[in-house]
Write a structure and sequence with these properties.
This protein has 310 residues and is of the alpha/beta class. The protein has helices at residues 2-19, 44-54, 77-85, 100-104, 116-119, 142-159, 164-189, 207-213, 233-245, 260-269, 292-307; strands at residues 37-41, 58-62, 88-91, 112-115, 198-203, 216-222, 250-254, 272-277. Helix 6 (142-159) runs antiparallel to helix 7 (164-189).
């Protein structure tokens, strides 16, 4: 079964490579592109979405890099200069990059600043004490990304009307990739009985994914939407009890987060730990998660393997 899952993922990626020019797949985020509009994008996921729509008509100016944690990021002097020079600024919003708010005050009056998670009419999950604006991890559902892509298309077209038809064509092509991605993930989960789809993660970043694909969320090592929260001893003990009571087979942590506490819980419960999921950030160039499409396929493969006890 594992071979079939990997085969489907590989087939999807090959189809993308054949049908759509490689606008952003496996592209390093620290390399600006040669287009006219200077477009600053915060998270690596947002950078990927924007590059797929903007293509070579924009110059991508990234803020975060692969494996950077947007919850804990500290902006630099270069970030301030890049904000001041940007024609368009895209961010996730929903409280994820509050550190950008002050920097954005230095943007040119003509600069378009868009919080995609808020502008795309996405139904936002409830937040918590650390993330009162709501659950910011909207990208974990490809149908939410499709809505974000429409906003990216319209924003770039507003800033650069002459290339509006190009942005529309690119957006339609990438939307097709996202539809194919969603269908592939659904097909992968169909092989695992619903009662086995029990998810324990490092922090609560997969809520939209859980809702989209019918998983059972048992709990997270950090019981918060933010990686900055600290679990209490009582919360950790409750998670251990839930893992044991529900016969959870795996704990999944993210590549951008220290898995130390998760490893301790793994030792106490005897449950295997998988420490390579991609959540708040894409991976480094050349990794299995260096684009959004690859990240989602890889995460799905890893989760199904862990939940299957393999």
């Amino acid at each position: 079964m594992q071979g079939k899952r990997i085969g489907r993922s590989a087939a999807l990626l090959l189809a993308i490579a054949v049908v759509i020019p490689m606008l952003s797949l496996a592209a390093p985020f620290d390399q600006p592109r040669p287009g006219g509009l200077r477009v600053l994008a915060t998270t690596t996921q947002i950078q990927d979405f924007v590059t797929n729509v903007g293509g070579d008509r924009i110059t991508m100016v990234p803020v975060l890099g692969g494996d950077d944690d947007p919850h804990e990021y500290q902006p630099t002097a270069d970030d301030a200069r890049n904000v001041a020079n940007a024609d368009v600024i895209f961010q996730n919003g929903v409280g994820l990059e509050t550190w950008l708010d002050k920097l954005a005050q230095n943007a040119k009056p003509s600069t378009l600043i868009v919080k995609l998670g808020e502008a795309a009419s996405i139904p936002i999950r409830a937040g918590d004490a650390e993330e009162p604006a709501g659950d910011p991890h909207v990208w974990m559902d490809p149908t939410n990304v499709q809505l974000m892509v429409l906003v990216i298309r319209d924003t770039l077209s507003r800033a650069d009307p002459a290339n509006g038809p190009v942005y529309a064509t690119n957006a339609a092509a990438y939307t097709g990739q996202l539809t194919q991605l969603d269908n592939d993930i659904r097909g992968q989960w169909a092989i695992l009985p619903p009662e086995q789809r029990k998810l324990v993660t490092n922090h609560d970043a997969f809520g939209y994914y859980v809702a989209r694909y019918g998983l059972i969320f048992v709990g997270s090592v950090i019981p918060s939407l933010s990686t900055e929260a600290e679990p209490s001893a009582a919360e950790t003990q409750q998670l251990i009890q839930n893992i044991q009571a529900q016969d959870v087979k795996a704990i999944f942590t993210e590549s951008s987060i220290n898995p130390r506490l998760a490893a301790q819980i793994s030792q106490q419960t005897g449950v295997r730990i998988y420490s390579s999921l991609y959540g708040d950030s894409l991976g480094q160039p050349g990794s299995p998660g260096d684009t959004y499409v690859k990240m989602m396929l890889y995460n799905t493969d890893i989760m199904i393997a862990g939940m299957s006890g393999r």
